[in-house]
Write a structure and sequence with these properties.
- This protein is α/β, with parallel strands linked by helices.
- It is globular, with a radius of gyration of 28 Å.
- Helix 7 packs antiparallel against helix 8.
- Helix 3 links the parallel strand 5 and strand 6.
- It has 15 helices and ten strands.
- The termini are far apart.
- The strands form three sheets. It has a six-stranded mixed sheet.
């Protein structure tokens, strides 16, 4: 083949590629066409739609209101829709399933990568919908798991509580700063609301009456936030108690209701994690893999997955280490593991990150094997568990309550 023929073929290929990248804009998707995939780019009041027909044609709707969209989809033959897991996507997906369609949630990172590599990095709503339609056909792409109504409730309660806590912290910090501007310093031991009120009233000679009233109103606002946080804690406890996994998780020390709430809202089906390290990696508590060629090394913590759950586990690890540092942690495998890390000179940040990862692996073992937390087995390797004998110990009485077969002896808290 000559160079001229090759150049002509390349031009024809480029022109056909451009034609494929530009959907045919229409007002609605025809109910007579067999659609192999439909991509949806969601907005607040409308959405963009791109459909791939069985004849390899691309049709797009630039903007369509949600009510007209569902009037259109109810007439379509059952097909597969794809969308990003943005706010409200779960409700839209459920409505499409009620109409007999299938829905897949595609990661926003995958969409951005497709637009950049296939659509000239021209990111707009119709291109995002087109990317979703084509990614929907990728059998190797793992879709994002949707939240159940129970998980959605837990996430909502967690977010509201977090908002109240942040607002309270901001108010307390602002109160201290305002007092400092009048030359009045507040010690940590005086941070209770009762002491703050008395402290403001004791300095009425320095503070102007208008300033005193304003500061007292800030304290009242903090009291209201404390009451709201307490109410949210009660609602969270009520919601997590409805989950059958609550009975196992509550036996584990240093895992409070807030952490459990986030865990139950994000972990999903525990059987999808075949190994404890997979759950640890799911929450970004493993080092990055920086291997190249024959040189393998690990980097910093990956910080993938749910940021809030990772933060909760790190806070739990800090609480555990504080108990260890004060000599209040019982002698067990976890304590010996921490002793080894401390004696080796492991930095505090690395130790806390590793301890948070260990807590995630212990939670995995509790949920997978359906066993309550046992301090005597926690932190031990499977080989060490085998040498202890095939039994389970009641955490309250210390009595053997169940004998295990040889295979069940490996149901240990992973090291």
């Amino acid at each position: 083949m000559s160079l001229e023929e090759t150049d002509n073929d390349f031009k024809e290929f480029s022109m056909s590629s451009k034609n494929r990248q530009k959907p045919i804009l229409v007002q609605t998707l025809s109910a007579e066409v067999n659609w192999t995939s439909v991509g949806l780019d969601l907005a607040k009041f409308d959405l963009s739609v791109v459909g791939l027909s069985d004849s390899d044609q691309i049709y797009g709707i630039d903007r369509i209101a949600y009510d007209k969209f569902f009037e259109m989809t109810v007439k379509l033959k059952p097909t597969i829709f794809s969308m990003e897991p943005c706010n409200g996507a779960r409700v839209i997906a459920q409505q499409l399933r009620n109409q007999g369609h299938q829905v897949r949630m595609i990661s926003g990172n995958a969409v951005s990568t497709y637009v950049e590599t296939h659509l000239g990095a021209q990111k707009n709503d119709i291109n995002d919908a087109q990317a979703l339609a084509f990614l929907n056909l990728d059998k190797q792409l793992i879709p994002i798991r949707e939240k159940t109504p129970h998980e959605a409730r837990l996430l909502t309660l967690f977010s509201i509580r977090k908002h109240y806590v942040e607002e309270r912290s901001s108010s307390i910090t602002a109160f201290k700063g305002l007092m400092q501007s009048w030359g009045i310093s507040i010690k940590r031991s005086m941070c209770s609301l009762k002491n703050l009120k008395a402290f403001v009233l004791d300095h009425t000679g320095v503070l102007e009456p208008a300033v005193t009233d304003a500061l007292l109103s800030m304290i009242e606002e903090i009291e209201v936030l404390n009451h709201r946080i307490t109410e949210m804690n009660k609602r969270i406890n009520e919601e997590i108690s409805k989950d059958e996994r609550h009975a196992l998780i509550k036996t584990m020390p240093f895992i409070g209701p807030t952490t459990e709430c986030r865990l139950l809202a994000t972990v999903g089906d525990i059987s999808r994690f075949s190994r404890p390290r997979h759950m640890q990696a799911f929450y970004g508590l493993v080092p990055r893999n920086l291997a190249t060629g024959h040189n393998g090394r690990s980097g910093r913590m990956s910080k993938r997955g749910d940021k809030e759950m990772r933060t909760q586990l790190i806070e739990c690890a800090c609480a555990l280490y504080m108990a260890y540092a004060r000599g209040r942690f019982p002698d067990c495998g976890i304590k010996k593991w921490i002793d080894k890390k401390v004696n080796n000179g492991t930095r505090y940040g690395l130790l806390i990150s590793a301890l948070a990862g260990k807590l995630s692996r212990i939670l995995w073992a509790l949920l997978v094997h359906g066993q309550e937390f046992d301090i005597k087995r926690a932190g031990l390797s499977r080989e060490a568990i085998k040498t202890m004998g095939n039994y389970v110990v009641d955490t309250e009485t210390g009595v053997v309550v169940k004998h295990l077969v040889a295979d069940e002896a490996t149901m240990a808290i992973p090291a």
